Hints:
Elements: E1 11-18, H1 24-34, H2 55-60, E2 68-73, E3 76-82, H3 90-99, E4 102-108, H4 115-126, E5 131-136, H5 145-155, E6 160-162, E7 164-167, E8 175-178, E9 183-186, E10 195-197, H6 204-220, H7 223-230, H8 237-249, E11 254-258, H9 267-277, E12 287-290, E13 297-300, E14 309-318, E15 322-331, E16 334-335, E17 339-342, E18 347-350, E19 353-358, E20 361-365, E21 367-368, E22 373-377, E23 387-389, E24 396-397, E25 407-413, H10 419-432, E26 437-441, E27 446-451, H11 454-466, E28 472-474, E29 478-479, E30 482-485, E31 489-497, E32 504-514, E33 521-525, H12 534-550, E34 561-570, H13 577-594, E35 597-610, H14 615-624, E36 628-634, E37 639-646, H15 653-660, E38 666-676, H16 679-691
Parallel strand pairs: 1-3, 1-4, 4-5, 5-11, 6-11, 33-34
Antiparallel strand pairs: 2-3, 7-8, 8-9, 9-10, 12-13, 12-24, 14-15, 14-23, 15-22, 16-21, 17-18, 19-20, 19-22, 25-27, 25-28, 25-29, 26-27, 30-35, 31-32, 32-34, 35-37, 35-38, 36-37
Bound molecules: guanosine-5'-diphosphate.
Residues 18, 20-26, 44-45, 63, 85, 136-137, 139-140, 260-263 line the site of guanosine-5'-diphosphate.
Amino acid sequence: MNKDQDPIANTRVIGIFAHIDAGKTTTSEAILYYTGRIHRIGSVDDGTTQLDWMEQERTRGITITAAATTCVWRGCRINLIDTPGHIDFTAEVVRSIRVIDGAVIVLCGVGGVETQTETVWRHANRQSLPRIIFVNKLDRPVADFWQVLGDVRRRLTPNAVPLQLPIGSGDALAGVVDLLDRQALVWRSGENEPVAQPIPTEMQAEVAAAREALVDAICETDESLLAQRLDGQEPNVASLRVALRRATGAGVLAPVVCGSARERIGVQPLLDAVVDYLPSPVEAPPVVGTLPGSAEVTERPSQPDAPFCASAFKIVSDPHVGHLTWVRVFSGQLLTGQAVCLPRTGAEERVGRIYQMHANRRELVKQMAPGDVMALVGLKSAITGDTLCDPAHPIALETFVFPEPVIAVALRPVDEQDQNKLRQSIARLCSEDPTLVAGFDAETDEDLLSGMGELHLEIAVDRLRTEYGVNTQASLPRVAYRETVRRRAEASGTYRQQSGGHGHFAVVRLRVEPLERGGGIVFEARASASELDDQFIRAAEAGAREAMGKGIVAGYPVSDVRVTLLGGRAHEIDSNSMDFRIAGSMAVRQAMRQAIPTLLEPMMCADINVDQDHVGIIVADLGRRRGSVSTIHLRADTRNLVGEVPLAEARGYATDLRNMTHGRGTFTLEFRRYELVPDELAEKLIEQRRLEGQVPQR
Ligand code: GDP
């Protein structure tokens, strides 16, 4: 088949990523407008956009759930996955990156690269995801394309290459110069289509230099072009485009385009760049997975005649059709009514209906093929991250890894009758968002909801009210501390009950010692422990892990500790596994108490934008919160402070920052890692937990 007719080669599966407010929603809207999907452009500012369909998003003006939509540009089908800007929704970023073949990174022409942009970039690096950068908002008075480009090269990648330069700036922004085509595209006020014009005289030198640099960068990636270039010939534009496409697909170059989504300048060339330089599913590497139940690696090519395999990247409860499972198809085809296998559980389920989404209009379709992003009805047990595959050819794609939540609130229904409804609604929320975790505090008889930040939880609680109709009272957010040890210690646990009848006997001797941060719990058995039966060793480990899961000194799970089983004793007749479980738990509790137990706390990266006058106040305030500022970036009208602060000291920061800056400061907090709590404070916290009765007795 000719490549131009092959529907899969003519598909792009992309995501648009941006720091909050950089203009992702406006850019997506403009894309839908130009591709004919919508006939009127909504405005984020008056809450009429098509992609932000949840009430939450409308009222808060931020995009929470990734809605996918399909549109067509120059005969190429673009499946666009919308993604959140706020870092509290990392899960959405991670899972969308896994199911797309390329990304558009939208940057504000004033703010440039933000900490969250760096986070998204890092996640994209892990998946070797091809990227295009769109420098937006160049119509703003203080926007500066070259400064943003410098920022990109310093903080994201030195391989960013501009394909365009803006014509004019601020109010006078008129269009862009396409460097490869050597032509100016000017958008006249009130007109959608740009007019091609000669390059303005005053830009000619700048354009010539930028074009030289672009051509050089492309030629560097291709031997035959480089040879031509060294021979003093200029390769033709068509072959430069082919090489640029290959280099972008390989992540060797990141093309940069620019404009203003709001003024609708540069959007069509952005779409051209998506079609011209981002890979189709056929060019993206084949997906790799394992045969369920084994470690054997297998892959699926992006072809319709290969066995079916898809990834469920989002589950949404839709008020009209019920449970929607959003999938990206990697290989093979599926017809309505056919069964798929979920290798996680081995279950087979039938797909009732298949919908393709166009903004918020859905179209019923009969089948799916590679590159499709569609919503399925009829799957009951699928959860985010599940693979769906041909039952005759099972494959388990790598599942998504989500960070563990770092903050929790206790929730009580305002109306006691709603207890069950609350629990069910929490469960639904958690099945949609894997970084929300439900829990239960047996001591206080409260339902807990944990998440990635205060805003994350606030929105979840709001959704309980608006979407599920449960009004709740939420406690103050509680930080998810962890317990750990400061030094090495050994201890024995002896469990003995031998008064008459069948007795119990087990002795476990073990050592605990600190592991590096993020080391979790590692359990090893020394050769000296071989005097014990394997089943007793396993039981001792299970007992130790169980005790550490509950916490030893403050009721928080233990982390970053190595446990080494040194030995033990069993009784020929009286010992059983349960005895070793108990002795293992006793031994680890004893050893941890001797190893100077302390606490770890979540440390957040703080990214704060304020005006010059407030920098001093903010830095001093962060200091009082046990935090610090590491860099201050100069922006045209603001200062961007990046630093760290313990989550425990950042609670309520939204309100405090508002008060300190008269409402003008903005910030984001993103979990970075766990850190030791300073000694004195750790002692206080441990004592407080003991007084509250939160420490497990065994
Ligand atoms: P998101 O948070 O990244 O989705 O950003 P939005 O699309 O919601 O835009 C945030 C704000 O920036 C809104 O007030 C938009 O009207 C405004 N905005 C978006 N694009 C542009 C642009 O190109 N120029 C200007 N001046 N403002 C823009």
